[in-house]
């Protein structure tokens, strides 16, 4: 518990963690929290705080097909949290491995990998997402592939820079002198000393990925219907948003609150890391 105290003293960490882990809790326990089946048609376009013909109660209303919006938002949390986390973790695996290798090896290996990363980063991110999804099709796995391909180069550049800095320190030189293998130096000596900045970037990137999944869903390139998806819910309800604003307000609040929580958590982690560096 003691190592967590510096983080728990930061209001940004507490508030951000509450929002982010709150949605994680919702995603895990969606089958128990959702009052109705998210695909079940009950009463079309019921407004918030109204009752259905068979005694149902719609806390935040229903959509055009009569599906309970609260249930769809809850199940949509599982969709966003699972695929955003999977895509971000996959991007980090590729980005970290290549960044460690490029930063430590230098020379031609670094030049080739850096050039490839710069080529991918030269394309607008959203356009790159759309092109990849259009080419390979919209599916959960393809969304993960698109996010990984688009995000890994930026992670590569961050890890490469951190690796170059850490590799110049005395304890790495001592490990080389002792004859430790390259991968042991990378994974045991260098990588643990980059976790602070990477944890901050991971939180921010996870929020960006959640927004990306929502954006793809809004553009009709996300998870195929009738899968509950926050961006897809906004897309479905936008034509009737003026008369029935609850169709888009609550999915937007869900996306915004998750992203806000991750951003606040990242800011809090950055403050703690900066304080530790000043003390060192």
Gist of the model:
The protein has helices spanning 5-8, 11-28, 30-33, 69-105, 107-121, 125-136, 140-167, 170-177, 182-190, 195-218, 230-237, 246-279, and strands spanning 50-51, 57-58.
Give the helices and strands, then pairings.
Layout: H1 5-8, H2 11-28, H3 30-33, E1 50-51, E2 57-58, H4 69-105, H5 107-121, H6 125-136, H7 140-167, H8 170-177, H9 182-190, H10 195-218, H11 230-237, H12 246-279
Antiparallel strand pairs: 1-2
Helix pairs in contact: 2-4, 2-12, 4-5, 4-7, 4-10, 4-12, 5-7, 6-7, 7-10, 8-9, 10-11, 10-12, 11-12
Structural key phrases:
MetI-like fold, 280 residues, single chain, elongated, mainly alpha, two-stranded antiparallel ribbon, 12 helices, 72% helix
How does this model look, in words?
The chain is an all-alpha fold. The protein has a single domain, classed as MetI-like (MetI-like fold), CATH 1.10.3720.10. It is built from 12 helices and 2 strands; from the N terminus they run H-H-H-E-E-H-H-H-H-H-H-H-H-H. The chain has helices spanning 5-8, 11-28, 30-33, 69-105, 107-121, 125-136, 140-167, 170-177, 182-190, 195-218, 230-237, 246-279, and strands at residues 50-51, 57-58.
Number of DSSP-assigned strands:
2
User: Which sheet architecture does the biggest sheet show?
Assistant: 2 strands, antiparallel
Mean pLDDT: 85
The stretches of 5 or more residues where confidence is low (pLDDT under 50) are: none
CATH architecture term:
Orthogonal Bundle
What string gives the helices and strands in order?
HHHEEHHHHHHHHH
Number of domains: 1
Overall, the morphology is elongated
What amount of the residues lies in strands? under 5%
**Largest beta sheet: strand ordering:** 1-2
Named CATH topology: MetI-like fold
The DSSP helix count reads 12
Distance between the termini: 22 Å
The CATH C-level name is Mainly Alpha
| Content-based structural category | mainly alpha
């Amino acid at each position: 518990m003691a190592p967590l105290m510096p983080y728990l003293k930061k209001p940004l960490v507490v508030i951000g963690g509450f929002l982010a882990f709150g949605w994680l809790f919702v995603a895990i326990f969606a089958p128990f929290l959702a009052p109705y089946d998210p695909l079940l048609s009950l009463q079309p376009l019921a407004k918030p705080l109204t009752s259905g013909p068979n005694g149902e109660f719609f806390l935040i209303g229903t959509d055009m097909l009569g599906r309970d919006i609260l249930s769809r938002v809850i199940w949509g949390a599982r969709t966003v949290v699972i695929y955003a986390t999977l895509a971000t973790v996959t991007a980090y695996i590729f980005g970290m491995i290549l960044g460690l290798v490029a930063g430590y090896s230098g020379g031609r290996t670094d030049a080739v990998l850096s050039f490839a990363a710069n080529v991918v980063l030269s394309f607008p991110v959203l356009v790159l997402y759309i092109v990849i999804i259009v080419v390979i099709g919209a599916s959960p796995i393809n969304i993960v592939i698109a996010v990984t391909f688009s995000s890994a180069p930026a992670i590569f550049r961050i890890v490469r820079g951190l690796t170059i800095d850490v590799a110049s320190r005395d304890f790495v030189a001592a490990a080389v002198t002792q004859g430790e293998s390259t991968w042991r130096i990378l994974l045991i000596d260098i990588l643990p000393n980059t976790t602070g900045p990477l944890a901050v970037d991971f939180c921010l990137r996870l929020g960006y990925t959640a927004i990306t999944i929502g954006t793809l869903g809004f553009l009709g390139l996300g998870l195929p219907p009738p899968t509950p998806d926050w961006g897809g819910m906004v897309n479905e309800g936008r034509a009737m948003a003026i008369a029935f604003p609850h169709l888009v307000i609550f999915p937007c609040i869900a996306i915004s609150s998750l992203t806000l929580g991750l951003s606040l958590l990242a800011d809090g982690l950055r403050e703690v890391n900066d304080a530790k560096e000043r003390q060192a």
